[in-house]
Amino acid sequence: MEVLSKIGLDDHYENKLTLSTVLEIDRNDISGKKTEMESLPGAFLKKLMMANANARSVCLASSDADNSSSDAGSDSYNAINPLDLTTAVFLCSDALLQQALVQKMSLCQFAIPFLLPDHETREITMMLWSMRGIVRKFSPSYHAFTKSFVEERLVLSQVPLVSFVRQGKSNFSKSLILNKLLSNPKQHHDTFCHRNMTCCDIPRRISDGLVEIAWYLPCGNRNVDRFTDPVAVANLRGDIRVFDKQFSFLCQTSAAVYIFCDDTQNIKMLEGIDMKAEVFLVTTSSQGKFFTLKKMATKPSLKTTTVSQKKRSEEDLVKVLQTSVATMLETCPSKISVENMAKSARRSGILVDEDGEECQSARKNAGKITRTITTVAEFKSKQLLSQGSVWKGLSWLEKESYRLRKAGRQNVEHYRSYLKTQEKELRRKQERLGKSPPMADFLHGVVTSEAQRSHFLRWLEMDLENLSRQDLSGLRDQYTDLRRKSPQAKERIAEIDMNISDCCLGLEHFFRECGQLYKYTSYLPEYSQQRKVMEHLPAHCAQMLLDGFPVELFDGDASNIPMKWITDVLAELHDVMHSKSNVKVVTILGAENVGKSTLLNTMFGLRFSVGGGRCTRGAYLQLIGVGEDVRNELGCDCLMVIDTEGLKPHQMNQDDDSHERDKDVATLAVGLSDVVIVNISEDSAAEIKDVLEIVVQAFVRMHDTGKIRPVCHFVHTHKSDVPTRERKERETQLSAQLEQMIATASGAERKHKITKISDVIEYDPDANNWCGNTDTQTTWLHLHFTG
CA-to-CA distance for 150 and 131, rounded, in angstroms? Predict the structure, then answer.
């Protein structure tokens, strides 16, 4: 296609872009320069993956501006409409990348491709798979009294669909009207690209026929909500007389269809359409001086009834449309999920992206596992056999063999021998427990082809989230509320925390089981069939890292690193990368719920788990490639980013063991890292002090290892804007606090040579303090490496 060739994507129409290639760090990421036309897709993708709300405003390099002396028509030809750019990127992305893009577009409150046209093949595809990852919280009217929220996967939500289409030309922007219709009084969002936006007056080429979808989700505040119930809104780009297949589909699935047209337009085409929706005509005068909203009866014959009198401004039109949609929602019996719309799409001759053999086979394999789950806690105890008390016992024995805290007056070697005997007994017990049928199904899904493995893991991940969401959502709300209001209620907080752990079931639990199975099968004879099945598992896990999946480094439940498993996975990664695996490590530390995972996702475009309460347990790593053009400059072939669980303030630790665990997590992070990001919330001085003490002690512990001092960045997150003067004062106070804590920590660790912060951390108070707003997530760090 001409547009794909123009922006340098023609090679990727067949050989699709992948998530790993998009996340790769290149020259543009470091220079921050404007991009040339052929780099527009890359610039757009990078901004989008970082959830940058200005992603659609990527600009051309100055060289293009210098060469813009041609006539206006030529300039218009050489530019590209943001909708064309979006369509081109989706046509050239694989399924996993499309799903990641949609999740980021949803976070930016952009409308999402729903029916994607391909003008090369003349096919239309419904993007059901790509939308499956979107999960949102909202407060519908039936929950307004209790002010509670519903958390749902949006493709499964039963909500009315309201569609907006155009026949002929219109004197005003339909998309601009929609943005005003959906925006709250206190906050405006450009959900749909419109004429008044930069570059959006450029003619569209490949995005004509695109249907976008967005959701309006009420927050439960009547003073803010435009509508008290959730509603999905579809917007067809182009004339319905040209794109009759898309229009027919919308008429079958929508509760209401609003047709924008001139008052002289012929609407006879509606007679032959299977119309299940209410139809409204928004007509304008030929001079565009006024409009009228009319309701149309399509059966037994075309008749219209005026709903509103003639109005003269777009603001008037928005108010009339709001009233019309709100009235429809109050009595609307026609609710449908996006998943169920797929049936109508297939009947209409529209393809569905998840109907491919790989996706459906992966879904079937994931379903074999989830169908066996009645309650999460029971499944974990009966099917993940190597975990639970056995794995925790092994973890304790491993740590005790180094720390010898229970040795007392025993001979050290005798005590270690006793611990080794205990470990062998537990390993034999693991071997007797064996492998459950769900784990056999999981291993089968992991060792299949690369494309099917990615689909399988995403299906299983989403299905597991759906199973545990209802219980977890309430528990996390309780945990957060109690932690904020009554941090002294340690026992109750610990109880809820344990309940959260019991209700959690994710991919990490299955891979923990893999690590244990791999460990004990490595002791079996080489000819053992069970060993042969397991020995290739680290290679598949290494490929997962390259594909963009997170891998658990530190088990958050057993407080242990499965060393053999992780070591062999990283060794396989080294082989897969043909020894080009020089790694720099970036790790984040901080208290619970300060947005550590969100910050990493925003900075690097990653997909660490984000949610309320104590969501991240343990530590997880993701891999980002580094382009060959900047490897020498950065001194590495890839970047390893580690997300860690939240450190608890001292008053919330129930016992010394939990406090020791926090120190272990911090020490692990510091010991592995070239760069450490410490994310601190400015809302609680006591919490800052507690967290900083843990972090500083970790730096002190690592002083004698011979490791080069890691660079340390402090991110100060605020719930509201803080004046510059006050921010500077806080940063000065932080430096003084760190110096005091260094003296205390060095004394506790008996390292009296350490007297100042620079002895253990490379830290410049003027360059390594960053301020971010939790509402806007604007923080961006310019990381640098040493060594």
Answer: 18
Label each residue of 664-730 as H, E or C. HHHHHHHHHCCEEEEEEECCCHHHHHHHHHHHHHHHHHCHHHCCCCCEEEEEEEECCCCCHHHHHHH
pLDDT one-digit tens code per residue, 45-101: 999 998 988 888 875 443 444 443 444 444 444 578 899 999 999 999 999 999 999
Q: Please check whether residue 280 is in contact with residue 297, taking contact to mean a CB–CB distance below 8 angstroms.
A: no
Angle at 334 between CA 332 and CA 337, to 5 degrees: 125
Tell me what pLDDT residue 492 has.
87
The class that CATH gives domain 582-787 is: alpha beta
Partners of 123 in beta bridges: 118
> What pairing do the DSSP bridges indicate for beta strands 123-126 and 135-138?
unpaired
Distance in angstroms (rounded) separating the CA atoms of residues 784 and 369? 44
What is the DSSP code string of 607-658? -----SSS---EEEEEEEEB-TTTHHHHT-SEEEEEEEPPBPPGGG--SHHH
**Alpha-carbon span 663 to 668, nearest angstrom:** 9
pLDDT digit string, tens, across residues 143-188: 555 557 888 899 999 999 999 999 887 777 899 999 999 998 778 8
Domain boundaries along the sequence of the chain = 1-105, 109-354, 582-787
Question: String of b and e for 142-173 (b: at least 16 CB within 10 Å)?
Answer: eebeeeebbbbbbbebebbbbbbbbbeebebb
Q: pLDDT value at position 63?
A: 41
Name the H helices within 229-302: 244-253
Q: Write down the pLDDT at residue 198.
A: 58
- Per-residue model confidence (pLDDT) at position 73: 44
Contact 595, 776 (CB under 8 A): no
- How do beta strands 150-153 and 711-718 pair? unpaired
579: left (phi over 0), alpha (psi -120 to 50) or beta: left
| CA separation for the pair 163, 234 (Å, rounded) | 5
* DSSP of 148-186: --EEEEGGG--B-EEEEEEES--SS-HHHHHHHHHSBTT
Distance separating alpha carbons of residues 288 and 312, to the nearest angstrom: 9
Which of these, 194, 208, 204, lies nearest to 314 by C-alpha position? 194
How far apart (Å, rounded) are the C-alpha atoms in residues 189 and 180?
Answer: 8
Which of the 8 DSSP states describes residue 203?
A: P
Question: Which residues of the chain, if any, have pLDDT below 50?
Answer: 60-77, 612-614, 775-780, 786-787
φ/ψ (deg, to 5) at 555 = -70, 115
For 31-95, the three-class secondary structure string (H helix, E strand, C coil) is: HCCCECHHHHHHHHHHHHHCCCCCHHHCCECHHHHHCCCCCHHHHHHHCCCHHHHHHHHHHCECH
Measured CA to CA, the distance from residue 597 to residue 649 in angstroms comes to 19
Give the pLDDT of residue 74.
Answer: 44
Cα pseudo-dihedral 46, 51, 57, 60, rounded to 10 = -10
In this structure, how many other beta carbons lie within 10 angstroms of the beta carbon of residue 640?
22
Dihedral angle computed from the Cα positions of residues 643, 644, 648 and 649, in that order, rounded to the nearest 10 degrees: -60
